[in-house]
């Protein structure tokens, strides 16, 4: 095992199947032209989503959330009422790193984070030769959202421990109004590929999925209404 410190990145190379790369700064990865670093580069490319991939994942979440916030989400004719307090979701690299850490060693069972602290959606599928990490993650997000279309909205618009057995836990995590940040990792393990997304603000039992009422009328503290989307966007104090 060799350790390299590279321009804002901490990278640990495991020779063999395991690749592991922690994004710790800004700017592109600069690699030396050696066999070892090429291996490293391939593994990191596979393990980490591209910026376009991250944007697509976040946008898919915010599209669902915006449609809900504006009272336009349609489940087979059941048009959901608008949301007063739906946060806009942003990408968080720390969550992405933690999500990736849960799968980079290809465990037989993927450990979940403390459910009181961090939400977690997991999808494992068969590997498809032509697909890259972005493809798997985008497919996972679309699969999760489809739970609402297939199974309907959570009873009483309320988060309960039954959501998992009803096959609604992942979609509900995508839609939970108080969730404001997320990050995902993707790892190929043999013939399987795992996508794991972590969410800041996990599902909280007995909470409403969102508060119904006038769009944006009750944005949480430090959030302001983004009119085009009807989402409550985080606003830094003093700006
Ligand atoms: C909602 O979806 C149903 C089909 O599932 C469709 O018939 C209906 O027109 C849609 N309503 C709106 C307002 O889009
Ligand atoms: C939904 O809410 C109503 C009114 O609060 C309650 O009586 C009912 O038991 C709830 N249904 C479920 C399935 O929790």
From TrEMBL:
SMART domains: SCP. It holds the Pfam family CAP. Residues 1-19 form the signal peptide. Keywords: Signal. Residues 52-208 form the SCP domain. Gene3D superfamilies: CAP. The keyword Iron does not apply. This is SCP domain-containing protein. It comes from Caenorhabditis nigoni. The gene is Cnig_chr_V.g18420.
């Amino acid at each position: 095992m060799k350790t390299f410190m590279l321009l804002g990145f901490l990278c640990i190379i495991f020779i063999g199947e395991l690749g592991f790369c922690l994004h710790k700064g800004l700017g592109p990865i600069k690699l030396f032209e050696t066999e070892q670093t090429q291996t490293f580069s391939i593994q990191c490319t596979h393990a980490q989503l591209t910026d376009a991939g991250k944007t697509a994942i976040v946008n898919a979440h915010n599209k669902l959330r915006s449609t809900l916030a504006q009272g336009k989400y349609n489940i087979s004719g059941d048009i959901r009422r608008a949301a007063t307090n739906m946060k806009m979701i942003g990408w968080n690299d720390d969550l992405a790193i933690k999500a990736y850490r849960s799968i980079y060693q290809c465990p037989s069972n993927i450990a979940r984070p403390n459910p009181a602290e961090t939400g977690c959606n997991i999808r494992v599928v068969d590997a498809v030769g032509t697909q890259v990490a972005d493809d798997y993650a985008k497919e996972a997000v679309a699969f999760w959202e489809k739970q609402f279309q297939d199974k309907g909205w959570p009873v009483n618009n309320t988060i309960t421990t039954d959501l998992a057995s009803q096959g609604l836990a992942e979609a509900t995590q995508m839609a939970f109004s108080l969730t404001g940040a997320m990050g995902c990792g993707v790892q190929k393990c043999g013939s399987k590929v795992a996508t794991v997304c972590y969410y800041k603000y996990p599902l909280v039992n007995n909470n409403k999925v969102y508060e119904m009422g006038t769009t944006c009328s009750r944005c949480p503290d430090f959030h302001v209404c983004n009119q085009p989307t009807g989402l409550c966007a985080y606003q830094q104090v003093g700006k």
